[in-house]
Design brief:
14 helices, about 325 residues, single chain, mainly alpha
Length: about 325
């Protein structure tokens, strides 16, 4: 846990300093200091740092923290170690809403609003399909809705014009390249406020991991807590999908890694998960920018490769335990 603190400072510094034009970390720190004190930018390097790279790195950190905590919460409320926003159709619903908004020319605040409405529809349908509230029903309904909404998003792309299709295709693969100060406050506000709320419910969430009956005996209102956490993860995912596109497997990988490092019962699980997710996403974005030289890989492609390998490793490890 203590190692994450210096990583939270060093990782964004390295990411901002690295690019097609490398800038010394000392110059990065000076440029950020001048911006914080209201001084005018000095030269092209200051503008590159403040206007281009810093918003991108901050969005990557928000995305990593938000998706990681969302995955951790979903794994708690479903008691399924493989749960993440994609499993419940939350991401698919957000993507469908955002795709419809983009193909119809909706911009500004309309984009995250459409994404959130899509995620709410996904959550509502999942809850209706699993009226008994059983965890197994929620999971199966989520998988079914995820496939359905993904198909509808593809159908919307099929009937869209060529320019919209190209824009949506790159966006759907995940990228932080469009990060700006003008829009950064929206996912920033949603993610930070949601993380504070989730942190306040950390103990009830840990009680839920032991089962519904055990949580009831500890005074936890299971059904409202589960619904509230589903809506909160939907809000986080929608705000991130609207501005980052589809980035998967973060909510699956990071909670597992954190539990391996500090344990599942630690009181700092949520904080550690958010911090590790933020650090990991900064380095994933840096890898996506540098791997092919002057060509940028979509972030979602990198996380999908890493997540698939991680998922296979989990299955192999589980098979060895059962053997």
């Amino acid at each position: 846990m203590l190692l994450l603190l210096p990583l939270l400072l060093i990782s964004p510094l390295v990411a901002v300093a690295t690019g097609s034009a490398d800038i010394a970390p000392y110059d990065v720190a000076q440029a950020v200091g001048r911006a914080l004190t209201g001084e005018a930018a000095q030269g092209l390097s200051d503008r590159i740092i403040i206007e281009l790279r810093l918003p991108r790195v901050l969005l990557a950190m928000l995305c990593g923290a938000g998706l990681a905590v969302s995955g951790s919460v979903l794994q708690s409320v479903t008691r399924n170690p493989l749960a993440d926003p994609y499993l419940f159709g939350i991401s698919a619903g957000s993507t469908l809403g955002a795709v419809l908004a983009l193909t119809l020319g909706v911009a500004g605040l309309g984009l995250p609003v459409c994404a959130f409405l899509g995620s709410l529809i996904a959550v509502a349908v999942v809850m209706v399909m699993a009226r008994d509230g059983q965890v197994e029903g929620l999971i199966l309904a989520g998988v079914a809705i995820s496939f359905l909404l993904s198909s509808l998003a593809n159908l919307a792309l099929y009937f869209g014009d060529s320019q919209a299709i190209q824009a949506v295709l790159f966006w759907s693969l995940g990228s932080f390249s469009r990060a700006t100060w003008a829009t950064l406050w929206i996912p920033g506000l949603v993610v930070l406020v949601s993380l504070v709320i989730i942190h306040q419910f950390q103990r009830p969430l840990q009680a839920l991991m032991a089962g519904d009956e055990s949580a009831h005996t500890q005074g936890v209102a299971v059904a409202p807590l589960r619904l509230g956490m589903l809506l909160l993860t939907a809000l986080i995912t929608a705000s991130l999908v609207a501005y980052c596109g589809g980035i998967g497997f973060v909510g699956l990988m990071v909670p597992h890694i954190v539990r391996m490092l500090i344990g599942a019962a630690s009181g700092a699980t949520i904080v550690a998960t958010a911090a590790f997710g933020a650090v990991m996403m900064v380095w994933v974005d840096l890898l996506a920018r540098q791997l092919l030289g002057n060509q940028e890989l979509p972030v979602g492609v990198v996380t999908a490769i890493l997540g698939s390998c991680f998922f296979i490793a989990l299955l192999i490890n589980r098979r060895r335990r059962l053997a």
